[in-house]
Amino acid sequence: MSTLRIALPNKGRLNSSAAKLMNRIGFPVPDSNSRTLLAEFGKGRYQVLMARAQDIPEFVEMGAADLGVTGLDLVLETRRNVERLMDLDFGRCRLVVAVPEESSVRSASEVPDGCAVATSFPKLTTEFFGKLGKKVTPAEVSGATEIAPRIGLADVIVDLTETGSTLKLNHLREVGSVLESTAVLIANPRSVVEKRLRIDEVTSAFESVMNASKKRYIMANVPKDKLQTLNTLVPGVSGPTVMTIMGREDLVAIHAVTNEDEVNGVIAMLKNIGAMGILVMPIDRMVL
Asked: What are the angstrom distances between the C-alpha of 213 and each of 89, 239, 241?
């Protein structure tokens, strides 16, 4: 069977999280400091191609890669013919419209026609303002968009933000939201047909990691006469697993999965019913 090639961002905001995801499924990909651009795994069954995030949609469309991890913002901007297989649980950000703090513009609809807008996303910018009945002039830049108003390049910017802190540091104020973005897994349409089984292996592996990321595995010894309360205290995936303990008629061992943000409450409730030896462990992967 032919090799399945997966393109990953070689640097930037998505690189670290994409590399960690691949490591979790058994592919120890090179980090951003490595000069390795193409690595093989699984005795040649898989290849990982390290590329610029903005090039990945093109690589996937052209068949240079079967799968790619990149930002939804880049997929929508490049308009490449790729299939969006799944959203990933990292790289969340927003593409926003921002103006200098002293500007009189209070919303994107107030941006005047013909205004120069600095952005790395000219197509999305033109489309967004077009829906508002506005015709703007994108000033395309490849980085440091926030400085554009200060150097007279543009009065408005359209740029990605995660927390808004960079905008504030550059004395900019958000006046509109173009879209919400996240990292996505995309595929070449032909590869989806010709390499379906191999692609399913990868998507299933990704899903198992994401399913496990916000779950915790709990083990405890619980008084046998308190078993009836366990389904409500520790629901688990299909209910808690209950096992006997050698030499103890009064206790049973329970194993269960719970949400990470509920762990402290579950521990308190288990202690209230007399549970002992409570252990909480991370879960590497979880197939539902």
From this structure: 9, 19, 21
Collapsed DSSP state (helix, strand, coil) of residue 127 = helix
Structural domain of 235 = 215-282
Contacts of residues 189-192 at CB distance under 8 Å and 24 or more positions apart, as own/partner, are 189/81, 189/82, 189/83, 190/63, 191/4, 191/63, 191/66, 191/67, 192/83, 192/85
CATH number at residue 220: 3.30.70.120
Domain total for the chain? 3
Burial grade of 186 (CB within 10 A; 0-12, 13-18, 19 or more): buried
Q: Is 177 found in the same domain as 187?
A: no
pLDDT tens by residue, 1-22: 589 999 999 998 899 999 999 9
Taking Cα atoms as reference points, which of 251, 248, 245, 256 lies closest to residue 219? 256
Q: Is the pTM for the entire model greater than 0.70?
A: yes
* Angle between helical axes of 15-24 and 196-213 (0-180°, round to 10): 100
